[in-house]
Design brief:
The protein is an alpha/beta fold and about 260 residues long. The chain has one domain (about 1-260): Metal-dependent hydrolases (TIM Barrel, Alpha-Beta Barrel), CATH 3.20.20. The protein is built from 10 helices and 8 strands. Helix 3 (about 70-85) packs parallel to helix 4 (about 105-125). It is globular. The structure holds zinc ion. Zinc ion (ZN) binds near residues 36, 95 and 204. Zinc ion binds near residues 6, 95 and 204.
Length: about 260
């Protein structure tokens, strides 16, 4: 059984209906996913999609879309969390974080919004799904101020030292499409060196297409191949690894246990 711990299914038009996708996924062992929002405009959409698929969802402000009036967006996020805190599908806050790769973004504003969102994670007792590009050192530094907030470093691509710091901090490392490229040395090194208990699988669908994608899009249906790839890289038994990743996903997003029991 596989869980796609980070994707954006339902936010862009799909080649097939959501129901067909979920059926196909479940037939392939992909039993659940976590749909993450990009901004306030997505919240209702991810909630409805997650409900339809019996998947989980996260709401948050993506660091690429922190607007000038971001404080109003934080208020909207807080109000949404308040309203839906008892929704079993609402499993976390995301995707949130820092992006120092894209030029022209206001770093101070990103950091201020990220801190507010970590505060909300604390208040609503939810894990976070973190986006980080060229900014892991700051993400890890800021997270030190919130030692009890747990979460996943989505699309982990940090150094070996950052990997160790993240693992020590109890964060999970999301492994996806990048891992399938032989040239992704950092990602593959982390995938091989990280302890068993710190890894989770994800697609970021429809983004981060794997090396074998013909459409240049990713899909939760790719996950069985990601699992094989990871087992090959780590030279581990696929079924043993699969069980560990499944349990890690449930520990990363504890509310998924309730959903899977439904
Ligand atoms: Zn994403």
């Amino acid at each position: 059984m596989i869980i796609d711990t980070h994707n954006h299914v339902g936010l862009a038009p799909l080649a097939q209906s959501l129901e067909v996708l979920a059926q196909k996924a479940s037939a392939m062992g992909v039993v659940c996913g976590v749909i993450t929002a990009g901004g306030v405009e997505d919240f209702e959409r991810v909630r409805q999609t997650a409900q339809k698929l019996n998947w989980g969802y996260c709401v948050g402000l993506h660091p690429l879309y922190i607007r000038e009036n971001w404080q109003a967006d934080i208020k909207a996020l807080s109000a949404f969390l308040e309203t839906h805190q008892d929704d079993p599908h609402l499993v976390g806050i995301g995707e949130i974080g820092l992006d120092f790769y894209v030029e022209g973004l206001d770093r101070d504003r990103q950091e201020a919004a990220f801190k507010e969102e970590l505060q909300l994670a604390l208040r609503f007792n939810l894990p976070v799904s973190i986006h980080s590009r060229r900014a892991l050192y700051r993400v890890l530094a800021l997270m030190k101020e919130y030692p009890t907030v747990s979460g996943v470093l989505h699309a982990f691509a940090g150094s070996l030292d950052e990997m160790k710091q993240a693992v020590r901090r109890g964060l999970y490392l999301g492994m996806g499409g990048a891992m399938t490229f032989p040239g992704s040395k950092r990602v593959r090194t982390a995938a091989i060196q990280a302890p068993f208990g710190s890894l989770v699988l994800e697609t970021d669908a429809p983004d981060m297409p794997p090396v074998f994608s013909e459409t240049k899009k990713s899909s939760p249906l790719d996950l069985p191949r990601y699992l094989s790839e990871l087992a090959d890289l780590r030279q581990e038994d696929e079924s043993v690894l699969s069980k560990a990743l499944f349990m890690n996903s449930l520990s990363a997003f504890p509310k998924l246990k309730v959903l899977l029991a439904k």
